[in-house]
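User: Hi! I'm working on a homework problem where we have to compare a predicted structure to a textbook description. Could you give me the structure for the chain below?
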Amino acid sequence: MSVLIELALDLARGLTNEDRFDRLLSTIRKAINCDAVALLSYHDRLLKPLAIQGLAKEALGRRFQIEDHPRLRDICAAQEPVRFTDDADYPDPYDGLLLAEAGDLPVHACMGLPLYADRDLIGIVTLDSLTPGAFDQIPQRTLEIIAAMSAATLKTAMRLEQLEHHALHAREVLQELNLEALTRDGGELIGKSVPMQQLKNDIDLVAGFDYTVLIEGETGVGKELVARTVHQSSTRANNPLVYINCASLPEQLAESELFGHVKGAFTSAERDRAGKFQLADGGTLFLDEIGELPLPVQSKLLRALQSGEIQPLGVDEVHQVDVRVIAATNRDLKHEVEAGQFRADLYHRLSVYPIRVPSLRERQSDILLLTGYFLELTAHRLGVRQLKLAAESEQLLLHYSWPGNVRELEHVVSRAALRARSEQWGRDIIKVEAKHCDLDLRAEIAAAATEVVKPASQFISLREATDDFQRQLISEQLRQYGGNWAAVARSLGLDRANLTRLAKRLGVHVEKRVIAKRE
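Assistant: Happy to help. Predicted structure tokens:
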């Protein structure tokens, strides 16, 4: 009973959602002895893990299609806690993901708690124990109380998130965004790293206002996804989001594509055609690769941004449009301005609020989350029940530099899964091994070795290179999280005690800071 009181008190504390969910699972494990527990939110026939304990970190990146997982389907269809019999002929969605058991799960105990708020299913809690029959003697009333308090925790978190958007319209936009994110490849901004949190904060800050946004970042980081997220989080979400790739526009057709034309305006103009600005009226126009736009067209684009006026080819009068512009580029536009390749006044008009999308190298702690997400998508496409990432594959992905960023990671995972499936055809759990990933780290290790200063020798062993990499990574994470060892351990997917032992061996420590209280 004391753990249930502790859970009730947590609901009233000023916690972040991440802390609230983690405390919830810890409290459940105190009340019910189990090897793994997970909290998942429900979104239109899809379950999204919010917090896990006892499962591989990549499970957080998974998105479970309910129709693909009979156990999850039965839990979602129930009105009360569900205890599966030990001999239930159902595949387990966590096969190969339990930290306490390598490979296929043996006969074990499995239980699920559906979570309801105002009679609507909002999520579930799943519990697994490697001891058959472990849940048989737990009173049904105890499970109902835990389910009710878990639902209250999830509902509180959802309500706080809704309040942050300040209006019913913004909440509906978020729901639409979630629907798109869960049904379209690459439709969700996945990541808990510090750079990703900053990116999400920038999006939240600017989305509700009609500022022009310039999205900057390397190829493959997800600039189009950021643009969609800004639009879906804005008050224009119910209006069109029109996309145009400026790099694919021939100079002679660029003006027509943007502003439209009437029949006879030029030789091949056989009928009237609306431009992208007219199509986006009331909504958002996304100008991808804006740095490739021909100079003669840039001046007319500037006029449209300044006054909201456009003039289709072959028309004397101007048209007024209400369009928010979001532009994206992988170029350094400041350098392009200095080189005379881009108009300075257009650059300043576009960059009212610049957003930089971090490269995958800057958000290493998100790699396994993204990998889990892509594995689940690929498994669904290939008709495979479960794709499991081998331990050596995890290390390979974590140590690679990803010049192609998230797009490259998605392609590597897709190819590796296809190769693994061809080798392990017929298995329930297909393991993606390092050989399937087709990544050569020799060049990566050589490059890293040249950066390490070794005055006593010009050579460096693999062990030394690994230690140096781990030392730099832990030190950087400690800096980002302000010396919070627990947060760093969660970010790196390690047990805190193991992390501190590793840091001690590597000679990593946090300088103590004295914070003086202001009088």
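For your comparison, note the following. Confidence is low (pLDDT under 50) at residues 165-186, 446-458, 512-519. The first helix runs from residue 2 to 12. Good luck with the assignment!
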